[in-house]
Design brief:
Blueprint: E1 4-6, H1 14-27, E2 31-33, H2 35-48, H3 51-64, H4 69-81, H5 85-98, H6 103-115, H7 119-132, H8 135-151, H9 155-168, H10 173-186, H11 189-202, H12 207-219, H13 223-236, H14 241-253, H15 257-270, H16 275-287, H17 291-304, H18 309-321, H19 325-338, H20 343-355, H21 359-372, H22 377-389, H23 393-406, H24 411-423, H25 427-440, H26 447-451, H27 459-469
Helix pairs in contact: 2-3, 3-4, 4-5, 4-6, 5-6, 6-7, 6-8, 7-8, 8-9, 9-10, 10-12, 11-12, 12-13, 13-14, 14-15, 15-16, 16-17, 17-18, 18-19, 19-20, 20-21, 21-22, 22-23, 23-24, 24-25, 25-27
């Protein structure tokens, strides 16, 4: 005989229910709870991630309510989480024998088959459920079907399932949200535009449909239409932060940096601050050459994430553009320490040391850049120039010889050799390499004047260039 009986705990405070339950378990006293109370208990422990207590509660629930299919399904779900799949399937079969109309049985069985990679069995499970489901349930079943196809990497079918779910339930926000991601992945922008325009005709105040339509336009580079659609989103739901953020990104692509910054700033007011938003704001002001304000937002990004290497690199770039090279080096080095494998950071340090005539350090970083990205021609060019500026002419020429073998047809390396040899007084080698370069790419000969300016005024050099001009 039960000492206490608790009924309809769903009307009481959940905390009180948990307290009573745990005290009785601790005291090992006999008690009875209604199904709804056990349901709340199990859900509470599941949300906390306390699988052990959830399993204990579901076992006690089955002792007191052995014919409740609800608890069989819940126990099967817990077993699925523990990857005891065979036992989970046995419980689902028992639950179906008790209540064959419970769609959750089919959904969980489908999840198990999908996790096992048995996609055809998962599809068959959903098809069987479709036959007994009502209209509202069918929309959720199409979402489940979309999950199966997504795991199966059949993304066209995912799109079709989500569309079908929305046809059955136009207010299904999960389907609308997922449809956007699916379209981005499959690039079904035209199909998305067609569907959402028709959807909006029937449901003109669906801000998520307008949002998806905007992304469809953006995917086809129809930016003006995308911005117009985003504005409809904001008109319907002025607190939807993603509309401001994504509209700002589209305006950024349109090179309308001031307007982009306005939208991103509005997003920052509405939403909880996050580093990517501040980074995007920094990029807007950087493009407007407002480097001080750009640094302000990049720093806000690093305040949220002290390991945000890209933001430190951007701070360095802003300083470099202002020719504040010492500050640029400090920021670049911070980025480099965080991600030593990032070739962009290595190259930036190579350039900034080159600009302040610290050629030994410039050589160090450009050598590293060549080791990391040997396929990038500019890395070889800058390594050679750094050696040359350091008066290490033999090394400068050796780098060019290796680059010429790697990059056949690149006239720049021959122009550089021509300039180097001219600088060190070997006119014959200079003219030989100049002629090779002119044969390959006449238009690039101005590169020599950057390295050896007075070469431009040499009559022999000028006459040779004129010969190839024709």
């Amino acid at each position: 005989m039960y000492e206490r009986e608790f009924e309809e705990y769903e009307r009481e405070d959940v905390a009180e229910l948990i307290e009573h339950y745990e005290q009785m378990v601790k005291d090992d006293s006999s008690f009875f709870f209604e199904e709804a109370s056990f349901d709340q208990l199990i859900e509470y422990y599941e949300e906390k991630g306390d699988t052990k207590r959830a399993m204990d509660a579901v076992n006690r629930a089955l002792e007191q309510h052995p014919y409740a299919s609800l608890f069989l399904v819940k126990k099967a779900h817990l077993l699925f989480e523990l990857k005891d799949l065979d036992e989970a399937m046995v419980l689902l079969d028992k639950a179906e024998a008790m209540d064959s109309s419970d769609i959750s049985i089919h959904l969980l069985r489908c999840d198990i088959f999908t996790w096992q990679g048995k996609y055809n069995k998962a599809l068959n499970t959903i098809q069987a459920a479709m036959e007994i489901a009502d209209k509202d349930e069918r929309s959720d079943l199409y979402l489940e079907l979309a999950d199966v196809y997504e795991e199966w990497e059949k993304y066209d079918e995912v799109f079709d399932c989500l569309v079908r779910a929305l046809e059955l339930d136009p207010e299904n926000e999960e389907a609308l949200n997922r449809l956007w991601f699916c379209v981005e992945f499959t690039e079904k922008f035209e199909q998305s535009i067609k569907f959402h325009k028709a959807f909006i005709d029937e449901h003109p105040y669906s801000y998520l449909a307008w949002f998806n339509l905007a992304h469809g336009y953006a995917g086809l580079d129809l930016y003006e239409k995308a911005v117009e659609a985003f504005e409809f989103v904001i008109a319907i739901n002025e607190d939807y932060e993603y509309a401001y953020k994504d509209c700002g990104e589209v305006l950024f692509r349109m090179e309308k940096y001031e307007e982009a910054a306005e939208y991103l700033l509005r997003a920052s007011v509405i939403s909880k601050p996050y580093k990517e938003l501040y980074y995007s704001l920094g990029e807007c002001f950087e493009r407007m050459k407002n480097y001080n304000r750009a640094r302000y937002y990049y720093r806000k990004a690093t305040n949220l994430d002290p390991y945000f290497a890209d933001a430190f690199h951007k701070i360095g770039y802003c300083y470099e553009e202002e020719e504040r090279f010492d500050a640029a080096i400090t920021a670049y080095e911070r980025a480099y320490r965080l991600e030593k494998g990032n070739a962009d950071y290595v190259v930036s340090l190579g350039f900034v040391f080159y600009n302040i005539d610290q050629f030994d350090k410039s050589i160090e970083f450009f050598r590293r850049a060549v080791e990391m990205e040997g396929e990038v021609e500019e890395n070889w060019e800058m390594l050679s120039r750094a050696y040359f500026e350091a008066s290490e002419y033999r090394e400068a020429l050796n780098v060019l010889e290796k680059a010429i073998l790697l990059f056949e047809g690149n006239a720049n390396f021959f122009y550089m050799k021509a300039a180097y040899y001219y600088q060190i007084g070997n006119r014959n080698e200079s003219l030989v390499n100049l002629e090779r370069a002119l044969l390959q790419d006449f238009e690039s000969h101005d590169l020599m004047w950057e390295i050896t300016p007075y070469m431009e005024h040499d009559d022999t050099v000028a006459n040779l260039i004129e010969q190839y001009r024709k």
